[in-house]
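Allow me, if you will, to draw on your knowledge of protein folds for a short while. A protein sequence and the structure tokens that stand for its backbone fold form the material at issue. I would ask you to consider whether the tokens describe a fold that such a sequence might reasonably adopt. Thank you for your consideration; the sequence and its tokens are set out here:
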Amino acid sequence: MKIPQEAISFEYFRASGPGGQNVNKVSTAVRLRFDVESAGLADGVISRLSSLAGRRMTEEGILIIEASRFRTRERNQADALSRLEVLLASAEKPPKKRRKTRPTRASVKRRVDAKKRRGNIKKLRGKVRSDE
């Protein structure tokens, strides 16, 4: 899926982490804002995206991704865009339908037999009576 550029905006700020003295004077960290409503996504994709995004999605429907792993603004911007693409790709895939299954007769028998064995072990734990 092609991400519409008008739905994306970038904000640059100073970051902690790699960069030495440069980190104190240059704004290399990137905050990507993706307006989900104006992107023209399907309703199912939007709901899956909001559940995948979690706290990164605001109540106004804006997805915020911060990237500050690299020393340069360009690499951080590319990192934020690739993370957005991965998130959108996983939101586009509908979840698999769950098929109801039943336990096999043998597995039910094994479970019941194990419960009976355990019950017998517990039954034998009583006080010892001395019949003399």
